[in-house]
Specification:
Strand content: under 5%
Helix content: over 70%
Shape: elongated
Number of strands: 0
Length: 121
């Protein structure tokens, strides 16, 4: 799960940075505010890569997805991009867990089949 979720978060890191460049063109927004909010969101993307498997990591990821969609208020394209990344986040969590379960099953089978062979040698 960690690999898939981290890949999604790094993709979001770049999308948030590009959205900040677009938001800076809005005369109603101060560049310092845009970069402060975007910088915090970009930092959270990278920080979540390290805590994704800990309790609450997935929930924080969902909160980031909601914030990404909500940023469409200032950059309307982010409604679409946020929805795309929310779908990718769901797929990363869902299929990542399935992959982790399969890996654990295969490791248990390998350990079980290796144990009798080790005694015979």
């Amino acid at each position: 799960m960690r690999t898939l979720c981290s890949s999604t978060l790094i993709g979001e890191f770049f999308v948030i940075g590009f959205a900040a460049l677009v938001a800076m063109k809005d005369p109603g927004l101060a560049a310092s505010t845009v970069w402060l909010v975007s910088g915090i969101a970009m930092f959270l993307c990278v920080a979540l890569c390290g805590v994704i498997t800990r309790p609450g990591g997935t929930a924080l990821g969902w909160a980031l997805q909601i914030a990404l969609i909500a940023s469409g208020i200032y950059v309307p394209t982010m409604y679409f991009m946020g929805a795309i990344f929310a779908g990718l986040w769901w797929a990363s969590v869902h299929y990542g867990r399935k992959i982790d379960e399969a890996k654990a099953r295969f490791a248990a089978q390998a350990a079980q089949s290796a144990a009798p062979g080790a005694d015979a040698a």
